[in-house]
Amino acid sequence: MEQSIQPLENYIPIFLVLGFAAVFALAVIFSSKLFGPSRPNKVKLSPYESGKDPIGSIKERVSIKYYLVAMLFIIFDIEVIFVYPWGVQFKQLFGEFGIIAFLPMLWFLIVLELGFLYIYKKGGLKWD
Amino acid sequence: MPQNSQEILLMLPHVVIGVGIVISLLIEMYSKKSETILPWISLFVFVFAGVHSIINISANQILFGGMLEVGGKPAIFNFIFNIGAALLILNSIDYIKKYESNHGEYYILIQSAILGMMVMAGSKDIFMIFIGLELMSIAFYVLAGINKKKSSSNEAALKYFLLGAFATGFIVYGIALIYGVSSTTSVDSIIQNFSTFTQNILFIVGLLLFIIGFSFKIAAFPFHMWVPDVYQGSATTVTGLMSTTGKTAAFSVLLIILSASLINYNIDIFAPYFAVIATLSMLYGSIVAIAQKNLKRMLAYSSISHAGYMAIGLAAANSEAFSGIIFYLAAYTFMNIGAFGIISIIEKQNDANTDLTAYAGLASKSPILAAFMSLFMFALAGIPPLAGFFGKYYVFISAIEADLTWLAVVGVFSSVISVYFYLRLVVYMYFKESEKDIDLHIDKYSLLSVVVSGILVIYFGISPDSLLNLILSVVN
């Protein structure tokens, strides 16, 4: 780390914006509670469903299959981690090795995408 | 990158298995009959890699800028891994059909586990060790739960995963400390400067964490908690693979530490540690195995005690120990794979047939299976002239040379205890009347695998020099 450390004063505008945002958000929430009239009745408190009577609980669970998303994320995450430094150095590598610099990464991507294809073929991406 | 065709030729075992995995994946995706094709592809890959390694054993080279060693010591280990895996594949062809789930992936996972082991055995860099370890372990975590419908199999997979991940945490922390002190990940340069690094307490702590992590993997005593449940719950062929080649791979890494103390004379910091875990594992494994009625569980405890016998060699830390441990690993691999092969044949029809009572009167129903099972039990107990005897013999000799005679005495004592439960099975097979009616279906490939293991066990027992000379030629 050669670059000089910037003094904290440079960040004052950012802190000001953050502080203002926090104060504004809190003020909006609490001012309506503070100044607005509060006359609840049964209809007002029921959840809005286009005027119909609500069916069942509002605490319904929706499965988002996060593990699928996470697994796929890992495949592409690893891909990016490997491709990034290679891409940064590619001009140099190309000058030194020619087209051979391209082939190992191509092979790596083929093998990696094969794993992706395997997931797809095995029905791992089906939501239900 | 390999510089010339000669180097590519030397790393052909790794390449062939890597390509084998990719081809197997493609077949598994696109073919309806993948279950019938994949065993033969894996078998070809393993036999080729094993034979290639043993032929090119004298061509010792370090590839990829000091990352991977081929030929020499890794070639012996590659031979053990690949031939062991090939025998298990032969066994699995019939056995794994028992599980209705699509078992094409079973063969792919075994291939990647073996590739990981080969990377571990040949690694010359700490990170290569770690990558190989993860490749092996992750494949094993999945393999342990390959039988999705059985709750004990799921339990085995989860237990193995949690405790294995915990052990891996130890290893990574150890690697961090080792790197922090030595500022290199190259195994060779760490070994060269071993005596200077050991002045630093952090290096010793790091190394100790590293060794503790691998003590989990070899199933030595204070770190053995996962072994019985995982070995019992997993599919029998998977247990055979985990207990033999998995243990061998972990020992191949522990031998690096042994070679560090060999090159730097008199630095034997971990001898007390290994002596303690050796004593505890031997006695604990042998004594608790007596109480087991389930054969897979009994062999799990026997696996703990065998880890103890091999750890005697690590405590002795001389060149006899080095070759002795490798010999022991080879012998243990083939006799245990044979034993698990027979268990898988008997267990084929009914999972409950792993109990001792299922073996009562086996000698009259299938004399050949009973004969081979007795052979493997005698070998595991260490009765001459079988391979197991010479494994123990070389390890005990090394302990006596290192003035650790008491350890050898404990080893002999523990072997005597273990004879009881190994021979109890033989008694059941030959001298008890059958209580249950077992529908025996002996598959020809499984039988071939058992016979080949048996021949190897006898051959290494009758002429131990053939294997020992090979090991000595690469160790020196």
Q: Helical content of chain A, roughly? A: 55-70%
Q: What does the oligomeric state look like here?
A: heterodimer
What is the CA-atom radius of gyration of chain A, in angstroms?
A: 28 Å
How many strands appear in the DSSP assignment of chain B?
2
Structural class of chain B: mainly alpha
What Rg of chain B is obtained from the alpha carbons, in whole angstroms? 21 Å
Strand residue percentage of chain B: under 5%
User: How many individual helices of chain A?
Assistant: 5
The greatest inter-chain interface is formed by: A-B, 8 and 7 residues
Order of helices and strands of chain B: HHHEEHHHHHHHHHHHHHHHHHH
Largest beta sheet of chain B: what is the strand line-up? Answer: 1-2
The general outline of chain A is: flat
User: What portion of the residues of chain A fall into strands of 2 or more residues?
Assistant: under 5%
Would you mind describing this structure in some detail?
The complex is a heterodimer of chains A (128) and B (476). Chain A has 128 residues and is mainly alpha-helical. Chain A has a domain at 66-121. Chain A is built from five helices and no strands. In chain A, helix 3 (66-88) packs antiparallel against helix 5 (103-121). Chain A is flat. The model of chain A has no long low-confidence stretch (mean pLDDT 81). Chain B is an all-alpha fold. Chain B has a domain at 270-476. Chain B contains 21 helices and two strands. A two-stranded antiparallel ribbon of chain B has the order 1-2. In chain B, a hairpin with a 4-residue loop joins strand 1 (61-63) and strand 2 (68-70). In chain B, helix 2 runs antiparallel to helix 5 (104-122) and helix 4 packs antiparallel against helix 5. Chains A and B meet through helix 5 of A and helix 2 of B.
